[in-house]
Each structure stands twice: as structure tokens, then as C-alpha cells.
Design goal:
Layout lengths: L1 E10 L3 H12 L4 E5 L5 H5 L2 H18 L12 H12 L5 H9 L2 E5 L2 E5 L2 E4 L3 E11 L3 E3 L15 H5 L7 E5 L3 H13 L2 E5 L11 H13 L3 E3 L4 E7 L2 E6 L4 E4 L1 E4 L3 E3 L33 E3 L10 H20 L22 E3 L4 E6 L10 E6 L3 H6 L6 E7 L4 E9 L6 H9 L4 H4 L12 H9 L2
Length: 464
């Protein structure tokens, strides 16, 4: 077998792997970046980027309708929406990502990488890459498919099929009330599908504050989606007029496409990690530098969804920076600080990782969604009803929450729900991560008239 030696081999060339490779190369190391599909990964072609491209037109149309005097129609042009999405994804052409890698001093290599020994990665069984210092696994996650009788008799959609669709199904069934389920329900309802969203609870987004799920549920129904709560899909069958979904209560829904959006699991299968005590499909547990805890020798690192820690692109890239910088520093003999706020450690998920759900209304949250059990934490909820929101849209409806550690007088969590609240979440993240005392936060005066004035109202409601 042919072979080649690098300082670092990174497996997985999505945004996380790209960042890990670039940071290691920035430290002067010779880096190989291995990818068996497309350079740019899930986020660029099948997840974050195309899904937001599909969502934005419908959200913008809904927002325009809330302002009198704005000339708008009642329908989107699906062909134009898909064309704009394709511009962002390049229709799967990853040549630009490959050239980017070379431009930052990283060697892109196509192939399926399997870890076949200490600091050894074998590509497609016939090419061995040896790493002098470290292997970094950034393979992301794959969909979790539930066991539903009859599901194997059809070709269900996963998130990839949904975000890369070339036409709008007349009837779309969706199973799952998480982020993918509600965002795709929103997008395709806006594009003209008859959407049936089936969820197990009384509201979607169960990990968020209850009012967030309630407002998103109302928004989806306002957009024309049928939401079947406290339900599930008992069985699936291919019928003469479409796919038949039998729900928990016995109701049958006939759809043209069926999207299964029931979560994801770490993509560790086929990496050879079982030889190191890691089960396929299980997360690679790491310390805050990204070092894999279960593997001796300190040569195996991981970042992103594959670690099971806050499966979000921005969190993964943040963890990748820590891993790449740590590997480069160790290779150079530079001390690596393990302090919580060191650039060599990724600790944000211990405190506050923001997330936005791009439905209408948007959900923007960071930190805790509710008080800690048995604590003295205080929760303050208010409507977003300020001059800025009133001017932003007629009939603006939204809510905001802060979770306060009353003993330390700092924020532990913030949730905003409403039109265009996504741009508010970073200020909340800074306040939480910086542990800004509420008495000090009082002096961060919000601009008038903006939706950000809600900060003042939250602090007033708290008692300042």
C-alpha cells in the first residue's frame, strides 16, 4: 500500500473539520483533510445553509404582509427559491472548498478514512496516512431512523432529501417536533405544500421554554400546516394515491413525501474505533481540549457532533479551534492551558451555547430554559411589547424570558420568541458568558426604538 506522512490527519471536511485543519496548519503543521463525500460537509450542502435559504423567503413574505403599504403577493415562486438555494450550495460543487483548503496550507484528500492503528488512517483500504502528532475526527452525525412498520417499503425523506428537493410535494408528512421538523414544516408550508407535522408531545421544541413551543405551534398553524400533537406514526404503507401514514389515534393521512426528522446520532460507524473501545454510533467523549478520553496516548482528538456535545455548527467550529490550537501547541512544545477561558479549551457548552430556530416566529435561546430544580433561581417572563417591536411589525407577538441566579445576580439563560429575534441572542450570550451582574447590565442602555428595548423591560420586571 502507498503511504504518506503528515503532522495531523483530520477526518471529515465539514465546517468543523475545515476549522480544525486550518488552525493546525496555522500553527505550522503539515495537515491532511480527508473527506469521502463533499468538502464543506453537511452544513454547506444539506443542512444549515440550504434550510435557511428555503426558510428566508417565506419568513420575509410573512413579515412584509405585517406592514401596510408594502406591495406583496400571496405566494412564493418555488423555482426562484430553489434557484437561490442552489446558488448557496453550488448544487454540490465543492471545488471552491477544495481550493480554500489548499489556500490555507491544508492538503485535501478524497476517500473514506478508517483508523487502523495509533496515528494511522487508511483510505479505502489501500493508502495509509501516518500522523506524527494527532488524528482529529470531525465526522459529524447521521440521522436516527426509528423502527416503524412499513417504513422500509417506501423511500422516506431525511433532512438531505428535504433541503435538496427540486419540487414542492403537494402533500408532505413530517415526523418529529425538533428543529428540523418545525423548520421544514415552515418552509414547505410557505412554498405551498399541505404539511402534516406529527409530534409526540403537546407542543414542538420540547427542550425550549414551553411558551416557545406554543408560539411556534401557533405560527405553523397560521402558515397552514396541520400539526398533530400527542401523536405518532404507528405504521407506513405505500398506497395507490400516495404514502399512507397511520397515526397513533388511528387516523390515516395520505402524503406524497414523508420526512423522518427524529434526531441524529454521532457518525462513528466505519471509523475503526471499535478497536479502541468505542462502539459504532456512540459519541467520542472528549475533554475540553478535544482529546478523546477513552484512547491512551493523547493522539486522538475530536470535535463537533461526533462528540455528542451541543450538536450545533457554531459550537463544533468553536471546539475545532480549541482542538487544532492544542495539537499545534503540543507539537511545538508550547504549554497548553487547561483554564476554563483558555483558547485551548472549549467550555461554552458548560455555560451557554446559543441556538436559533428559524421558524416564524423565530426562537433564539441561550443557556438554561428554566430554573434549576431546588435552586433559588428566578424566572421572569414578559411579552415583547416595546416601541421597536410595534414599529417592526403590526400586531407583533413575542415573548422573552430571563433565568436569574439570584445568589450571584447574573443571568443563566435567556429565551426570545418573535419575528427577527435571532439578532438579539448574541447580546444575551455575552451577558451570560461574561457573567455580567444585573446591576451592571442595567447600564447597557438599549437603543430606541428597537426590539432590543426588551432588555430594559426584562430588568424592570425583575425589579431594577
Amino acid at each position: 500500500m502507498s503511504g504518506q506522512t503528515f503532522d495531523v490527519v483530520v477526518i471529515g471536511a465539514g465546517p468543523v473539520g475545515e476549522v480544525a485543519a486550518e488552525r493546525a496548519a496555522r500553527g505550522g503543521l503539515k495537515v491532511a483533510l480527508v473527506e469521502h463525500e463533499r468538502f464543506g460537509g453537511e452544513c454547506s450542502y444539506w443542512a444549515c445553509i440550504p434550510s435557511k435559504a428555503l426558510l428566508r423567503p417565506g419568513n420575509l413574505l410573512a413579515a412584509a404582509k405585517r406592514i401596510p403599504g408594502v406591495p406583496v403577493g400571496d405566494r412564493l415562486d418555488p423555482a426562484a427559491v430553489f434557484a437561490r438555494r442552489d446558488w448557496f450550495t453550488g448544487k454540490g460543487d465543492d471545488s471552491g472548498q477544495v481550493e480554500w483548503a489548499r489556500g490555507v496550507g491544508v492538503e485535501p484528500i478524497r476517500g473514506h478514512g478508517e483508523i487502523t492503528g495509533e496515528r494511522e488512517v487508511t483510505l479505502d483500504g489501500d493508502r495509509v496516512l501516518t500522523a506524527r502528532h494527532a488524528v482529529i475526527v470531525c465526522t459529524g452525525s447521521v440521522p436516527h431512523t426509528p423502527s416503524i412498520p412499513g417504513l422500509d417499503t417506501i423511500r422516506p425523506w431525511g433532512s438531505r432529501e428535504a433541503t435538496s428537493a427540486e419540487s414542492v410535494p403537494a402533500r408532505l408528512g413530517i415526523l418529529g417536533g425538533g428543529v428540523v421538523g418545525v423548520e421544514m414544516a415552515q418552509a414547505f408550508a410557505s412554498l405551498g405544500s399541505e404539511v402534516h407535522l406529527v409530534i409526540t408531545g403537546e407542543r414542538p421544541l420540547p427542550r425550549n421554554a414551553a411558551f416557545a413551543g406554543d408560539l411556534v405551534l401557533h405560527g405553523l398553524r397560521e402558515a397552514g400546516a396541520y400539526v398533530h400533537t400527542e401523536s405518532g406514526v404507528e405504521r407506513v404503507a405505500a398506497g395507490a394515491s400516495g404514502t399512507e401514514l397511520t397515526l397513533k389515534d388511528g387516523e390515516t393521512i395520505v402524503v406524497d413525501e414523508f420526512l423522518v426528522a427524529t434526531g441524529r446520532r454521532p457518525a462513528t460507524a466505519g471509523l475503526g474505533l471499535d478497536a479502541f473501545g468505542v462502539e459504532a454510533g456512540r459519541a467520542l467523549e472528549t475533554d475540553d481540549t478535544g482529546r478523546v478520553s477513552a484512547v491512551d496516548g493523547g493522539w486522538l482528538f475530536a470535535a463537533g457532533d461526533v462528540t455528542g456535545r451541543a450538536p450545533l455548527t457554531h459550537q463544533g467550529k468553536y471546539g475545532a479551534r480549541a482542538a487544532g490550537d492544542t495539537v499545534a501547541a503540543l507539537a511545538a512544545g508550547t504549554p497548553v492551558s487547561s483554564e476554563p477561558w483558555s483558547r485551548f479549551t472549549a467550555t461554552a457548552d458548560h455555560h451557554a451555547v446559543p441556538q436559533v430556530v428559524f421558524t416564524d416566529p423565530e426562537v433564539a435561546a441561550v443557556g438554561l430554559a428554566d430554573a434549576r430544580p431546588g435552586s433559588a433561581d428566578r424566572v421572569v417572563d414578559i411579552d415583547i411589547a416595546v416601541a421597536g417591536s410595534s414599529l417592526h411589525a403590526d400586531g407583533y407577538t413575542g415573548k422573552a424570558r430571563i433565568v436569574v441566579d439570584t445568589e450571584r445576580n447574573v443571568l443563566l439563560g435567556v429565551t426570545f420568541v418573535g419575528q427577527d429575534v435571532s439578532e438579539l441572542v448574541h447580546s444575551a450570550t455575552v451577558a451570560i458568558v461574561g457573567e455580567v451582574p444585573l446591576d451592571r447590565l442595567w447600564h447597557a442602555v438599549p437603543s430606541f426604538p428597537t426590539i432590543s428595548e426588551v432588555w430594559l423591560r426584562l430588568l424592570e420586571a425583575y425589579g431594577l
